[in-house]
Write a structure and sequence with these properties.
22 strands, binds 5'-deoxyadenosine, Rossmann fold, pyruvate-formate lyase- activating enzyme, 500 residues, alpha/beta, 5-stranded mixed beta barrel, binds iron/sulfur cluster
């Protein structure tokens, strides 16, 4: 029975975490993870539905597997995550060679489904030619089970078992780890599929979250990122009606993990930020002064059509409050350009908002109408593609100006970074590269004690989530080090390791 598994993940950090948790469970059951679909008995795609482009990549992967499946009928193919939930069993009509469909809210069932699929597909039988028949298929979708209620008690929350199953072994790289604090979303922004694919918002019990962060910190985590679609909306109602707020949770995690150097959280929802949460960020020295807080637009009219629940003024007031409490705060945002009816004046307001907030970076997306959302029913996608593209580029150009200026101000500063790994540039021998000495020796100080004569360009991240390129060795991955910023480009800083 084949148990070699290939998995490819698309989309957000939530999906990255789901993949890690699913893999943890499957490894424990003896599955072996392989690097290419060619070596695999099972191919899983953990998918994203947020924009059409993300879905197209998966469609083309599934198309490529059609021929493989004909040659190897026992290959098990699974579509998991948001596309499975959004498409439902209709996906089988287009791709009859798919065996498994599992939505993101049902992933705790995946090991059993996989077991069934592998056993059935390995069984030699005269029905083998009907390998596409329904009885072989395994389906778990929120839409096909009873929809969970938004007031669901945590004890009824079967998906909690997936997060609780997290095991950390000595070989796992946990230097930067994700921990979920809420699942789902109740906001129903008119353009967004997430409330339909991940279901209503469910808050995890605080003790489960704290225990998980402690487990990761004990295993050597340097940075834990708390995840939620609207992470700062966290509020857990205990059986005795006490409520643990997001601010309470931050204080409790911070206190419980004194050896964890960095705690951060994404993604924040502008309307939900309390002063207490900002105070917790200010008061707890190991919480990073970083917010990813999508604005989506700078136009009140568009924000209203998007059902975001705030005005541009309210967004700016929040940014002012955050900056006055934490002058060193680093901000990132998302924008959608070309939302239905968006005019040049609306677009200008987005550019003004970007300039005012001086974001570290903006993720800019062209509006993509998504089936099942309110916007696709209610509004015509009437901004022509060339206008969307131009507005995207214009917003990007403003962001680049802002980033270049922000980054220039960093030159000469000394900052803490976490080394994430090697950059795409190939490693090079120190002796072949005259810049070696400049890049690795801080002033007259000796070279960093960890450095070997072979230098590799590494990607590191500051507490404010800025990327810094530094020269060092791959063995530094996961370490927290100090660098001096020596140079900058619009999106990247360059630095050298320093020994203090
Ligand atoms: N079209 C374009 N961008 C979208 N996003 C979400 N839905 C859509 C859509 N239909 C963007 C938002 C969100 C980010 C994760 O993706 O900016 O914050
Ligand atoms: Fe989607 Fe809005 Fe929820 Fe974010 S807050 S996941 S954009 S519905």
């Amino acid at each position: 029975m084949g148990r070699r598994l290939y998995i490819e993940t698309f989309g957000c950090q939530m999906n990255v975490l789901d993949t890690q948790l699913v893999l943890g469970q499957l490894r424990a059951q003896g599955y072996q993870v392989v690097d290419t679909p060619d070596d695999a008995d099972i191919v899983l795609y953990n998918t994203c539905s947020v924009r059409e482009h993300a879905e197209q990549k998966v469609w083309s992967r599934l198309g490529e597997l059609r021929a493989t499946k004909q040659q190897r009928p026992n290959l098990v193919i699974g579509v998991i995550g948001c596309m499975a939930e959004r498409e439902g069993t209709g996906l089988f009509r287009r791709y009859p060679h798919v065996n498994i469909l599992c939505g993101p809210a049902e992933l705790d069932k995946l090991p059993a489904m996989l077991h069934n699929a592998v056993v059935t597909s390995a069984k030699p039988s005269d029905t083998d030619h009907v390998s596409h028949s329904g009885r072989r298929r395994q389906v778990a979708l929120m839409a096909s089970t009873t929809r969970r209620s938004s007031t669901l008690a945590a004890t009824d929350d079967h998906l909690e078992n997936l997060d609780l199953s997290r095991s950390v072994s000595s070989t796992d790289d946990v230097s930067q780890a994700y921990v979920r604090i809420t699942r789902g979303c109740n906001k129903f922004c008119t353009y967004c599929v997430v409330p339909y694919t991940r279901g209503p918002e469910v808050h995890r019990p605080p003790q489960n979250i704290i225990d998980e962060v402690i487990k990761l910190a004990d295993a050597g985590a340097r940075e834990v990122t708390l995840l939620g679609q609207t992470v700062n909306h966290y509020a857990y109602r205990h059986p005795d009606a006490r409520v643990t707020s997001f601010a309470d949770l931050l204080y409790r995690i911070h206190e419980a993990t004194p050896a964890l150097p960095r705690l951060r959280f994404v993604t924040s929802f502008p309307r939900d930020f309390t002063d207490a949460a900002l105070q917790a960020m200010r008061d707890c020295p190991r919480i990073c002064h970083y917010l990813h807080i999508p604005a989506q637009s700078g136009s009140d009219r568009i924000l209203k059509l998007m059902n975001r629940g705030y005005t541009a003024r309210q967004y700016l007031d929040l940014i002012d409050r955050a900056k006055s409490m934490m002058p060193d705060i680093s901000l990132a945002t998302d924008f959608i350009v070309g939302f239905p009816t968006e005019t040049e004046d609306d677009h200008r307001r987005s550019m003004d908002l970007l300039r005012y907030c001086r974001f570290k970076n903006s993720f800019i997306f062209k509006y993509s109408p998504r089936p099942g959302t309110i916007a696709i029913d209610r509004f015509e996608d009437d901004v022509p593609e060339p206008d969307k593209r131009r507005r995207n580029n214009e917003l990007l150009a403003v962001q680049q100006e802002v980033s270049a200026e922000n980054n220039r101000q960093m030159i000469g500063k000394r900052v803490e970074v976490i080394i994430e790994g090697e950059s795409k540039l190939t490693s090079r021998q120190a002796k072949a590269d005259p810049s070696f000495v400049d890049l690795t020796i801080a002033g007259n100080k000796p070279a960093h004690p960890h450095l070997s004569p072979t230098v590799t360009q590494l990607i590191a991240r500051t507490r404010g989530d800025q990327i810094v390129c530094v020269d060092g060795g791959p063995f530094l991955k996961g370490q927290l080090l100090r660098v001096q910023i020596t140079d900058s480009q619009s999106l990247t800083l360059f630095g050298k390791l320093i020994a203090d």
